[in-house]
Amino acid sequence: MVVFVSTTYLYWPRARRAAESVHGVPCHPVPRKGYRPTFRFAIGERTAALPAFLKLKVDHKTVLCRDVNTYRALRDFLLNSGYSPVYETERVGEESTAMATFACLSPLTGERLAVVLGLSAPNEVSHAQAPFAYGFAGKPQKDAQTYMQHLALRTTDIEKLKSYLESKGAEFLTPIYKDKDSFGPLLQSFTRELFDDEWFFIEFVQRDYDADKLGVGGTQFVQNTVKSLYVSKQEEFREWEKTGKKRKFLDGVPAKERDQLLRDILADTEPKGYVQTVAPISRHVKLN
After folding, report:
1. CATH superfamily of the domain spanning 8-23+46-284
2. pLDDT (tens digit per residue) in 154-172
3. Which residues contact 157 (CB under 8 A, 6 or more apart)?
4. Under 8 Å between Cβ of 104 and 79
């Protein structure tokens, strides 16, 4: 799906012991009789052992904005910094709540960023305003103007990747959406949120063209998928407002496998070090 950009004050990694990786997430082991992993990592050979569909690249990241002034300022800053628009809509979502979205590409670095403004109704909060209405990182955030909502990771085979993660117990929010952008087939699927005190999730993307060599021009996101994601996220958010509980991405993964699976997804993502710039990840996960 879509949404990106980051600001300095979002990034304050907490100290962690070497043995720790994910915190604040209740662990409820799920018995998995008869299951055997399709592959195992030998010590010192984890990268080489990765199957092709787990050799991930950053596709884009999405940032939420508190208000229209922040949204316009980020949009203008990116355009004035050499980024080119690849998708924009003033409103997409439901009849009552929705979001405005601007996505762009740097021809110099190839980085894609998306900026989102949640549009709440008088009697309902848009999920894209949740970090500002309810806080994040375990506390209210009255001064925060942006929030990193999700990171999109590109794979060579999204169906194999999704099946593999689900076999481990991971839970996705959406099916695989299949459509086309200006350059070719675009397949996307979105996970449930990762942490209790965050609103962060992962998007997996398969672009059946060389996405790293695109020039300016054309649309690289699909309106139908953006709308479908918004509706799914808003339904998930309504469930949380009613129950106060989240169904998270790795809840179904046995506790002893959870940390390793998250590292398998994130630690070797290209470009190296990019994942650690995403604030919700750096607050909860130790990858080194």
Report:
1. 2,3-Dihydroxybiphenyl 1,2-Dioxygenase, domain 1 (3.10.180.10)
2. 999 999 999 999 999 999 9
3. 52, 53, 206
4. yes
